[in-house]
Amino acid sequence: MRNKSFYIQTFGCQMNERDSETLAGMLRDSGYYESPVRNQADVIVINTCSVRENADKRFFGTLGQLKAVKRERPDTVVAVCGCMMQQQHIIETLKAKYPWVDLIFGTHNIHEFPELLANVLNEREKIVAVWGRAENIIEGLPSMRKNPYKAFVNIMYGCDNFCTYCIVPFTRGRERSREPKAILHEVYRLVEDGVREITLLGQNVNSYQGMVSEEDSEIKKETSFAELICLLNKTEGLERIRFMTSHPKDLSEELIEAYVSCEKLCPHIHLPVQSGSTKILSMMNRKYTAEAYLKLVERLRSRVPDIAITTDIIVGFPGETEQDFDATLNLVKTVGFDSAFTFLYSARKGTPAEDFKDQVPESIKHDRFNRLVNILNITSAEKNKALVGTTEEVLAEGKSKTNAALFTGRTGGHKLVNFKADSDVSGHIVKVLITNSTTFSLTGRASEV
Ligand code: SAH
Ligand code: SF4
Ligand code: F3S
Fold first, then answer.
1. Which residues form the domain of 117?
2. Given the CA of residue 50, which atom of ligand 3 is nearest to it?
3. Which of 86, 139, 302, 378 is most buried, taking the most CB atoms under 10 A from its CB?
């Protein structure tokens, strides 16, 4: 029998990207190889995101394309998983309108995938296997990583914050932290495998609470997020530590000090503000005020002067008036973010904000969005321009995809740099003299390895 191939299409955040690496690892271990072309693969997996309506729409669009693939090659297995599958109304829609889907599973049982797939193939029947809630964290699953030098490492799963607009607490369940030892072990193995930079993943890493189940003399019974960073900082061969995402409501003083004491922790923080209006923040259930956010930024900059600060902002949350939006513009101008992700508010089924009154009309949302992005772009361009003439440390990730004469990588502050180098510097931290800048990237040349 010839070897079979797979293709995984991933929507959504780093959590999903990381899950897809696990799914790929399991398929590889079952004897499958990765197909470069989706529509020729024997097993097609779509890992879905539900954070905004657009993500849902793109998924259904993709499924539409797969109908033709199934017609031509009926033996193809179409499997769908991820955040959308944790919602009953989506499962109902799939059952009613998309009969060419063979396997549906959720975010809490990805470890069951090989078994479920085998059942689909053996029985030639459709399977829906979604768990309503998470059981214990499963350790030791295989992984097929996309990047040789950088890796995502989950430190916790789920979210307990219930921001009123957000679907994630419903799709990812309650907060669970991995044991520090399991994380340290994974990072050790990654470094052995050539990884230089890790990004610790969690919806709110500040509420990480690592418990130790066995007696261990080196690790305390309870480990905070900052303590975890300090433990990881000792990993020989590891060069950089990053994390995503930290919630402003409980960013601790201890974490700010970790930037000072742990030299591997990169001078960058992604600190989603969502809005500059305290009234809107309260309606979002974010549990901080605009003033508290500004104080936090000040505090971070006083202890870590070169820290790059990036953020997420939602435009057009229900009840957002022109005045509230002005408050967001003002906050953005005051902080001067290095960069930001901006989103049009999207009502999600089952979230409290879906039923809030005074939903903002689409045209107003778009208008505000454009005004906000203009200001953010001006600041990003200024911040990048200020780096021209300086020398930055860049982790070289390989050749640039758009220009083979250049290498590409990121600075400690997470800025994208394309640069010239005389030899293949991939996988090394190189000093790069920045010679030019645009709104979204820097260019330069390596001065030494
Ligand atoms: N846990 C992270 C965010 C994960 S979702 C945190 O709280 O910081 C990533 C971003 O998507 C959020 O920060 C928010 O800006 C945006 N987002 C989430 N739900 C949204 C919705 N319903 N409409 C528009 N944007 C949304
Ligand atoms: Fe969603 Fe809020 Fe949790 Fe982030 S903290 S995942 S925005 S509920
Ligand atoms: Fe999307 Fe789920 Fe991530 S909804 S943003 S893939 S946690």
1. 5-129
2. 4
3. 86
